[in-house]
Amino acid sequence: TPLYSSAASDVYKRQVSNNLIAGLVGERLLLTLWVGSLWAIGYITAPVAFIYFEDIEVAGEFVGKLFVIINYLGLACGSALVIRYASLGHHAITLWRFWLTLSMLLLVAFMHFYLQTEISGIKSLDWRQDSALSAQFDLLHHLSTIAYVALSILGLALVATQDNMITKAER
Question: How does DSSP assign 12-61, residue by residue?
Answer without folding.
Answer: HHHHHHHHHHHHHHHHHHHHHHHHHHHHHIIIIIHHHHHHH-SSHHHHHH
